[in-house]
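Structure, all two chains, one model.
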Amino acid sequence: MLEYVYIMAYRQIKRFWRARSRIAGTIINNILWLLFFGLGWAYTLRGQQFQMLFKGLDYLSFLLPATFATSIFQASFMGGISVIWDKQFGFLKEVLVAPAPRYLTILGRALGDSIVSLTNGLIMLAMGFALTSRLNPMGLPIALAIGFVMAIGFTSMGIAIASSMRSPEGFQLIVGTVTMPMTLLSGSMFPLNMTPTWMQILALISPLTYAVDLCRYYLSGVSFLNMVYPWLGQETEILLLIATSLMLMVIAMKMFERTTIE
Amino acid sequence: MENDIVVENLVKRYGSIEAVRGISFQVRSGEVFGFLGPNGAGKTTTINILATLLKPTSGKAFVAGYDVVSQPAKVRKNIGIVFQDPSLDDNLTGYENLYIHGRLYGLRGQSLRERIEEALKFVELWEFKDRLVRNYSGGMRRRLEIARAMLHIPRILFLDEPTIGLDPQTRVHIWDYIKRLNKEYGTTIFLTTHYMEEAEMLCDRIAIIDHGKIIALGTAEELKSMVGSDIVYVKLAKNDGEICSKLSITGVENCKVVESNTVALQVKKASEAIPAILLHLEKLEMRVVEVSYRRPSLNDVFIHLTGREMRDSEGSFIEIARMRHRARMR
């Protein structure tokens, strides 16, 4: 059972490790984003009056934990494209014709891609710790656990969508249209409590919002969701996140079972 | 004899297109069985159904005794397959490709390492095992795919157009691997091809398939005997319209003028008939410029059955033994 999961995870990680240029590209992207977006706003919102907006946080300690979550989200979701590459380059047939159960091979794939995108997030977070001393290192283990749960969920989402698609262009189009609004709505760049109600409702539908809020809570000590919705404690958020990830995982398994080579 | 593959009235329809139109056949254990037919005849569709990758529209198929529709997992355990299109992971090394394959088939540890070494040495790729597949040549990739398909020592090996797009030298190598696999491991082999000489060289029995139907099935010799005899071509120095009437000697079953000064003679056995024909022509004092003969090829069988040539076929399959008879100037 687990050996099938292991071997596919092994393959995904090995492939990632081989693509050094991709790793370098991700790191450079992250640095540029943090420098120009993060520091830009951090300097703009430097005064006392602005810290009110962020419940006493400065902008960097508001932004960095959220960036950890959103970078995992983006990398995970995008990871689904490898299913389409495998369709195009034929390796998918090799997996489909193997006696290993498909739901286990796809689980391994999600696991491997999750570890890869968690690594992405960690690189981002390491830069965060270098930029500000206000992040709480004690929150790191639980932030990693949250990152892992969401990575499983979002890689599954990517796999599920990719399973029913043929072209990488089509997949990229979907990723583009889904990633941007979800990243913005998650409250990663601005506090959600200031936004209109309809936007808050939309935000509450997206699991990324909970992941962002949880990471911020454990790394910086402030939960914005909890302030607006007192019933939304950390435990509830964690449960919701786990439930969504599990659900997406099951959907991915079902979708992949139905993949054909036609 | 036991059958490793049994197919009964198999049909596969894509919308209104019928790719496979009710085929039935059996493949015996240890046999090399070939599907010969033009592109688009339904060969790949059949292989994909037998390998559990496609569901048939109707009909039954059993591989290694298991139903491909209701017991796909058991079928998958017993088969290896080399797809027509590449299916390797380009970003991994040859060794890693085999390692992942082995693990997906439940092999592990020392026995997996030994199997990988054996398979890679079998296809002479052991020294390239740590090279990324993306840097392999086309022939090396094909060999690696064969090594991968045999890694778990399947009972039945499917090869979909195993030498398509390969240079002649590599093709001969691949044929050698296939024959050795069949002999040394006793693997039952089901292959598809549109190369006549490939079918003839490798297959114990051949099914000729066209437009989703099997139109003939048998050994290469049996199929050829459907067409009949050898054909001897004699090119004469001078045009003679009456030549056929002069050539009514024993052994010549049929005579036809094919070009102005060339006649085609249908004979039982060319090697025995040619000396007699030449002797006869010498007596008639007719100068012979060129003599050639041709055994009926599978292409002739295909033409005989369908009335057209097999598309994409190459010239090299015709077994032509050219004999130049230079008539001495008097």
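The longest helix of chain B spans residues 168-185.
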